[in-house]
Amino acid sequence: MDITNAIMDQELGRSAFTVERLTYTRTAEGTTSRSVTHQAMGCVHPGTPEMIRLLPEEERHEEFIAIYTDFALLLGSDHGSTYTGPVKIIE
Question: Structure pTM?
């Protein structure tokens, strides 16, 4: 099921936001990092009480948002000598 039309609907709160991805590369000389920013579109809403109950107890006091987008929001990945950190929503 394609829900792109729903998450890109202006009436549902579609907005532009910036996503930052950090990539770390390990070499014999040390670790270097590189930051890349991307523009994304989607709906950003406050987390619902039902969503917050699913979080671990130590994270329930933090601010929580729900993001509905077709942009790939990754938690991070390790590819041997290269590690990509989780995405960070800048605005």
Answer: 0.65
